[in-house]
Design a protein that fits this description.
The protein is mostly beta strands. It has a single domain, classed as Lipoprotein localisation LolA/LolB/LppX (outer membrane lipoprotein receptor (LolB), chain A), CATH 2.50.20. 13% of the residues lie in helices and 51% in strands. The protein contains three helices and 15 strands. The radius of gyration is 19 Å and the shape is globular. The N and C termini lie far apart (77 Å).
């Protein structure tokens, strides 16, 4: 009897691992690959928006802290000057917007664009586990890579995007690409997870690219070159404290 080649053995082992995974575990793995597991940390982010009429850049600080109900995220603009001090705060499914001059924060949708074609949901990071259920999955080739395609539906009407088609690298179960859909199923955006990085033993999405599927040649890249573990005060994540000294 011919001994199976190493590649065949690896494929068999990988298939066994995939079969053993539950749908929720697939989503958990997709989140673990993109988010730092620390209880409190800060990320610096450079956003580059390209459109047919020109190019723009923004600098953001993204603060994350784990609370009893889950992680809260604060996105704050450092540049351009016209947006400096603008803050978006994500608390569960609620999203608050504040900028200098407002007496109090406003509640907004997760689809609200904050710069270029990147929405606040994408800047804060779309969470799949607990927010979506897997309706279908299948093996597929994506740009020559073995991938697992998952069709997801939101568990609540308050989630920014009602449906998502997500491709995971079949070996590592890291997101490669996602199509974000409207309630009707119409594709709105394509998100490409183009680069991953490590902070000690933890992994995160260092660069993503958002392509607008409704308008041609509208593209926004979000680069996160630096992540710091840092103890952050609760007040940073309290919507009642936005705009107050």
């Amino acid at each position: 009897m011919r001994v199976p080649k190493l590649a065949s053995l690896l494929f068999i082992a990988l298939s066994i691992v995939l079969v053993a995974q539950t749908d929720e575990q697939f989503l958990q793995r997709a989140d673990q690959a993109r988010f730092i597991e620390a209880n409190s940390y800060v990320m610096s982010s450079r956003v580059i928006a390209e459109r047919p009429d020109g190019k723009g850049e923004a600098l953001l600080m993204i603060y994350n802290k784990r609370f009893a109900e889950g992680v809260r995220t604060r996105v704050e603009f450092l540049a351009p000057e016209s947006m400096k001090g603008t803050v978006y705060l994500v608390v569960g499914d609620d999203i608050y917007f504040w900028q200098p001059g407002l007496l109090q924060p406003l509640k907004i949708s997760g689809q609200q664009k904050i710069f270029g074609d990147a929405s606040i949901a994408e800047a804060a990071g779309i969470q799949f586990s607990g927010k979506y259920t897997v309706k279908a999955k299948q093996d597929e080739k994506l740009d020559g890579r073995d991938a697992l395609r998952l069709s997801l539906e939101a568990t609540s009407e308050r989630v920014a995007f009602a449906k998502v088609t997500l491709w995971l690298d079949k070996r590592e179960l890291k997101p490669i690409q996602a199509i974000l859909h409207a309630v009707s199923g119409e594709p709105l955006k394509k998100t490409l997870y183009t680069k991953y990085a490590k902070l000690k033993d933890d992994e995160y999405a260092e660069e993503i690219t958002v392509e607008d599927l409704l308008f041609k040649n509208f593209k926004t890249a979000m680069q996160t070159p630096e992540v710091k573990i840092q103890d952050l005060p609760d007040d940073l994540f309290d919507p009642r404290k936005l705009g107050r000294p």
